[in-house]
Amino acid sequence: MSRRRLLAGIAVLGTTSLLPRSALAAPNGLSPKIDALIAKMTLEEKIGQLTLYPDEVRPTPRPINPDINAQAEARDRARFQYAEIRAGRVGALLAGTGVALGRDLQKAALESRLGIPLMFGADVVHGLRTIFPLPIALAASFEPALAEQTARAAAQEMSAVGVHWTYAPMIDVARDQRWGRVAEGSGEDPYLTARFAEAYVRGFQGDDLTSPRSVASCPKHFAGYGGVLGGMEYNATDLSERELRQTHLPPFKAAFNAGAITTMAAFNDIDGVPASGNAKLLTGILRDEWKFPGFVVSDAGSAEELVAHGVAADEAEAAALALNAGVDMNMGGGLYKRHLPALVASGKVPMAHVDEAVRRVLLVKERLGLFDDPFRSLDPKREAREVRTPAALALARSAATRSVVLLKNEGNVLPLRKDARVALIGPLGDDPANMDGTWAPWAKTGEAVTLAQGLRAALPADRLRVVKGSDIHTALPGGIDAAVAAAREADIVILAIGEGQDMSGEARSRVEITVPHAQQALADAVAATGRPVVVVLGTGRALALHGAVRDASAIVVGWFLGSAGGLALADVLTGKAAPSGRLPVSFPQDSGQQPFYYNHKSTGRPQAPGEAAFFKARYVEVSNEALYPFGFGLGYASVTYGEPTLSSAALPWDGSIEATVEVRNTGTRPVEEVVQLYIRDMAASVTRPVRELKGFRKVTLAPGEAQRIRFTIARKDLTFVGSDLTWQAEAGAFDLWIAPSSAAGRPVRFMLGKA
Ligand code: GLC
What we know:
By secondary structure, this protein is an alpha/beta fold.
């Protein structure tokens, strides 16, 4: 990277506060000492800094990746890895935790000729040992501050066990709920995802990246992974550059503006060019346009996979394509080690590209303070006392409680009556192995509180019966009979059903996003007893609800809430806490509607809500609406919205107007309401969504209380990516809603004046 660009990058990212003083002195962002180091490095040592292997000395408790490091025989992999590290041929390790062996590994690195410290990375996406709600669940809180707090707590915990770098946040905008990785992100909306992206980065990196309690973040997967066709994992995408820039890039720009200093190249292709070999993306946009100063790491094997994509004839070509495009560090089994020496010798990879990549990696290591203190975050005293702390567990409970979404509450069956006899039925009622969600490889099964345990702590012993009724995918002998019997003796049934936690996450795309058949049969049988049923859904994605599940008296989305999940759910079900979550993903009427998202285009034949007309943009079987729309959720009190009022119906090109609405709690309990601001550009030079979220405010209303909520609108809120691929606004008419969901409210019109 040119010195000018790097300095500009630092200025743009406003990350000067992250740089140690020494680094600020150098023209290319590096301290003179580190800059001089590069000049001493052999090519082999440079390639070593660009090489990330799975940690063979400290393997994870359970496999989290296909075996991508066939570097040596299983029997001597650890010894082999130590030798590679001492030879200066390793820059970073993946997924290892533990201070004692971490210190040994770092000592080995310091014994190498130049003594460049290792960087330890791990996938701590929603907690290491204190498991916070799945990101999709936390997004439902509509409280980015919770993301910052939980990321901060996760950073403290992971850095207590020797992790410097987390492969998070995952900020892919997911438009198709069949895709399993919906679970790891913040939903279907770019604006909401961007607010959470920046919050996660602030939490992970803190105010001082050299602090041993801060970790480098790695917003992923750059970019467009959420657009995989058919929601099929690892599939191709068919994204125009306009759609990429309009929908999928804004969360990354927000993350980088918040100071994120690494990013991960995605598996997917973009308009025919795989992200991990895409110079336009990794250099044109990321470096030249955005001045990103950090480094790009490939996804696991994503550089090697350029061969399978059919854009590289062999691994050597794949290595050249990846490095020249801008993949600085290879996460895999030694691709750069095997091929870069010959590629540099032949000139297919200029040494200048290798040097730039090395500079970026050393910049991050310097910003982490690893040169000043290679044993930062490798303190045995911290490891002994800063994991699963009471404060972290209390935060896990609070965050989980605030992520629960109440979709239905007919007859106000919730909160549970104090004297109610409760039958907790279903495979997710008391299963410790299905509480943490995907990406919890360090969680210890049995540590998370189940719903049954939460209810036992909240209800009198003789008021609760727990019956499994069925397994996740299969019926249990006598299961339904036992469940029906328990339901008959109860006043109300809590039916804890849904997906197993291994049904979402990576490599977990589903063709039908429904409750597994065995559980649907259980639900139908329990419903036939006539007892009121409260469905509590365990899920990492939106589901298509049918039959007795859809017709239950109440429906609660419990996602996978982590360590305190059962306590949080019990808090909400008993009324100790009120549900305040809102859907970050649309729940469709049917799986067949996927991909489905609220901010869709109008088309030339839009179907008005409830309109029965045939020749309209819809399916024969179902209307083009969600069963439960993005932004929807209920509390334990009803809230009314007045008509939005505008300070003016004319927004000057360089001015602003205010939009105000009165919201009132008309119930008898306190309520937390997420007041949402949407706009629609009525006529532009390109087709625009029927609604776009542009702001939200979560407010608490006491019984009977009214508040006036105010949003300021300016031209920057109305921009879109035009045909010339630049962000722009156009004068003209806009509709504006302030509403409780993406499908509610009546619009008011305003005009954006000409420049
Ligand atoms: C996986 C995932 C990525 C993760 C990486 C390391 O394949 O795509 O999100 O960070 O490998 O585990």
